Amino acid sequence: MRILVVEDEPGISGFLKQGLEEESFAVDVAENGEKGLQHALSGAYDLLLLDWMLPLKSGVEVCREFRARYAHTPVIFLTAKDTVEETIAGLQSGANDYIKKPFHFEELLERIRVQLRGKEVLEEKYTLGPITLFTDRHLVLRGNEEVPLTQKEFALLEYLMKNKNQICRRTQIIEDVWDIHFEYNTGVIDVFMNSLRKKLQFTTSEDYIQTIRGIGYIAREL
Ligand code: CA
Which of 67, 128, 162, 170 could bridge across to 186 with cysteines, CB 3.0–4.6 Å? Predict the structure, then answer.
């Protein structure tokens, strides 16, 4: 589970990063609203911890813009604000919860767990070396970087990753990914496979997708 902390006070962000990493979360920190939004929009995060008062872009603005693209990723505000109007503004921008500064780490941790409950079970994802594919979000990451793929490239990669360590025959791939139910010129697969390997930065020395000559392909860990 990966958490993005958007917080301009290094003391607080450092404390959060250390505490959350000790609880086995992967944590990235952004120190202003613009960077925070940029990171958040990569789609790499399971949850956002968002400070309210931030340089360049406020927490509410970040939350609103993030929500326009990601409807389901939980957002928790860290706020010194505690008037009813401000709390409502935060929730209206799309936040799931908020916690008032100063807070106890244990309480924040519990709120994070509540938001993430069931997420691990619900979200279907597959891994292959440095690549993670999220089925529902139609997202592919190499490390933390998004790999932009076309629909067919995504479908092809998804098929190979779902069938990891099994030989995928060319005829099966054509049937499943291209939805064509007859013997077809399967050369089209090679064209897509080449561009897929390039985009995933699979080199000949690090090729997690191997060609089985005359038969098909197999995705496997090196
Ligand atoms: Ca602040």
Answer: 170
Same domain, 113 and 56: yes
DSSP 107-125: HHHHHHHHHHTTHHHH--E
- Global pTM? 0.59
Query: CA separation (Å) from 143 to 26, 103, 156?
Result: 12, 32, 20
For residue 79, report the distance from its CA to the centre of ligand 1, in Å.
8
Instruction: Tell me the residue range of the domain where 199 lies.
Output: 125-219
CA of 145 to the centre of ligand 1 (A): 27
**Which of 63, 48, 218, 42 lies closest to 139 in space, CA to CA?**
42
- CATH for 184: 1.10.10.10
Q: Which of the two residues, 176 and 194, has the higher pLDDT score?
A: 194
CA of 3 to the centre of ligand 1 (A): 18
Q: What is the pLDDT of residues 154-170, one digit of tens each?
A: 999 999 999 999 999 98
